Amino acid sequence: MGMWVLEDRYLDRPPGTSKLGEAQDVSLDSASTSELKKQGDIILVPQPSDSPNDPLNWSKTWKNAIMFTLAFSSGVTTSLGPMISPGLVIISQQYNIDPDTVATYMVGAILLFTGAITFFTASGANVWGKRPFFVISTLLLLISNVWGTFADSFPSLAAMRIFQGIASAPLETLVTSSVSDLYFVHERGLPLSIWGVMTATGVLLGQIISGFIIESMGISGAFAISALIFCLVLPLMYFVVLETSYTKPRTPGTTVDQRPDSRSSSIDIKRDLKGDLATEPKESYKSQLRLFRGRVSDESFWKGVFRPFPLILFPAVVFSTLVYGAFFCWLLMIGVLSVTIFSVPPYNLNPAQIGLTNIPLAIGALIFSPISGWMADALPVWMAKRNNGIFEPEFRLILMVIAIPLSTAGFIGFGLAASRGLSLTWCLVWITLHSIAVPFASQASISYVIDCHTKDANQAFVTINFIKAVLSFVASSIGNGLLAKYGAESLFTGIAIMNLTISLLTIPSYIYGKRMRSWMERSGWTSKF
User: Fold this and answer.
1) CA 50 to CA 61: how far, in whole Å?
2) Domain for residue 311, yes or no?
3) Distance CA 227, CA 210 (A)
4) Residue 64 is part of which domain span?
5) Whole-model pTM?
6) Residues contacting residue 371 through CB under 8 Å, at least 6 positions apart
7) Is 318 in contact with 312 (CB distance < 8 Å)?
C-alpha cells in the first residue's frame, strides 16, 4: 500500500497512475524512463510530441495568457448567474412575483440551461475544437447583456436569462478541460487555482459590484455594465485563445506511440538527412486565428452528445460530481438566502449593502484559491516522491481534510447566527468559512477527475456541470420556501449534515480509488463509450 492507497492485484499501473520522478526498485510496464521527456527530475505526463504545434510545447507565457483569458472570461460568465441576487427583492416587488419564482428564473434557469447545453458544446468541441465555441459564446453573451439592458418585463427577463444560460455553456465546461491540453500533470494545480479564483471572485465580486449598480441604476444598469465588459473580453478571446485541441497527423510511415501517458496519436518515423525525426512546420499566428479548422476528430457528434451519461457510473466522476456540485450548490444557496435574511429585521440591508456582505467571502477566495492550487501540485508531488516516485490521483484528495471541517462549521454557525439575530459580523464569519472551503473542495474534485480520466475530461465535466446545474436549480427554486418553513438554524444544520455525508466519501475514494480505476479498466467500461 502506497501512502494508504491500496495497491491493485491485477494492474501495476491503472489509468491515472504515473511516474513523476526517478525511483528505485519499482517495476512499471512502460518504456525505459531514460527515453521519456523530463522537466528536471520529473517525467512529463502526458509525454509531449516533438511538434512545435503541440500545445504542451508552447511557451509558458503563451499558455498562461490563454489560461488567464479563459479564467477571466469564465469568472465574468459565472458572475452573470448570481449578480442579480441583490436585486431579487426589487424584481419581486416590481413585477409582483413571489420570491421563489423570481429566484428560479433569474438564478436557477441560467444554471439549468447552461448544464443542459454543455452536452452539445462539449461534443462539438471534441469534433471541431474548443476555439470556435469560446469565441461564439462570448459574442452571444454580449448580445444577451444588451437584451437584458432593454428588457422591460419579467417574461423578457426570464427569456433573456435562458438565452444567457445557453450562451454560457462553453465557458462553464471547456475551460477546465483546456488545462489538460496545455499543462502537464504536475503543473495543473496553479492554472486550476487561477480558474478557481476567477470563478469564485466572479460570483462574489459580481454581487458586490452589481449591488451598487442596482441601487443606483436599476436592474438594467447591471446588464449594461456586463455588456461593456464583454466588449473587452471578445477581442481578447479572439486574439489570445488559440485552439488547444491537438492531434498529430497520421501519415504513411508512422507508428503508433505505445508509451504510457503519451498523446493518443502517432509519431512520424521518417527521418531527414541529419537523421533527426522529421517534424511538422510551425503554424503561423495568422493561420491559428482561423475560427473554423474543420474536424479535429472523427468522432460522431451525436454519439458525443450522449456519451457523458454513462460517465456518471465511473467512481471518480461520481465522487467529483457530488463534491463539486454540493459545494457550489450550497455557495449559491447561501447567496440567495442571505439576500432574504439580510433584507429583513434585524439587518434591514439595501441591495448595495447586501452586495458588500460578499467582501469577506471574496477576500477569502482570493487568498485561499492560490494556496489550494499550490497545495494541489505540491502535496501530490511530495507524496509521490515518498511513494517511490509513483503518483496516484488520490493524492489530490488530501485537500478535503481542509474543506470538510471548514464547510461543516460554516453552515452550522451561520444557521445559529441568523436564527438568533446575532450581529452581521458573526454571520459573515461563518459564511466566509464555507467560501474558504470551496476552493479546496473544487481543487480536489476537479483535479482528481482530470487525472483519472484525462481523455474523457470534456465529457466528465459535462456530467459534473449538469448535475451541479440541476442541484443549483432545485436549491434556488425551493430555498426561500424551506427557509420560511424550517428557519435558518434547522435548514443550515440539515445542509451541514448532507454536505458532511457527501464529503466523507473522500475516505473510501482515497483508499480504494486505485482498485476502482483498475476495475473500470479491466471491465472494459472505459472503452465502451
Assistant:
1) 19
2) yes
3) 13
4) 58-245+301-528
5) 0.76
6) 193, 439
7) yes
pLDDT of 25 strictly over 50: no
Distance between CA atoms of residues 182 and 56, nearest Å: 5
In a domain? residue 390: yes
Mean pLDDT of 100-104: 86
Residue 458 has pLDDT above 80, yes or no: no
27: phi then psi, degrees, rounded to nearest 5: -105, 120
254 in a domain, yes or no?
A: no
Q: How confident is the model at residue 238 (pLDDT cuts 50, 70, 90)?
A: very high
Please give the tally of structural domains in the chain: 1
Does a structural domain hold residue 271? no
The whole-number pLDDT of residue 88 equals 86
Kindly state the cell numbers that stand for 357: 456582505
Average pLDDT over residues 156-161: 95
CATH of the domain at 421: 1.20.1250.20
Q: Measure the CA–CA gap between 254 and 260, rounded to whole angstroms.
A: 18
Q: Are 380 and 395 in contact (CB under 8 A)?
A: yes
Which band of pLDDT confidence, cut at 50, 70 and 90, is reported for residue 33?
A: low
Residues 210-236 have pLDDT tens digits of: 888 998 899 999 999 999 999 999 999
Q: How far apart are CA 179 and CA 450, in angstroms?
A: 9
Buried b (16+ CB within 10 A) or exposed e, 17-38: bbbbbebeeeebebeeeeebee
Q: Which residues of 83-110 are buried (b: 16+ CB within 10 A; e: fewer)?
A: bbbbbbbbbbeeeebebbbbbbbbbbbb
Sign, CA dihedral 427-432-435-436, equals: negative
The three three-digit cell numbers of residue 468, written as one number: 451541479
Q: Which grid cell sits at 130?
A: 474548443
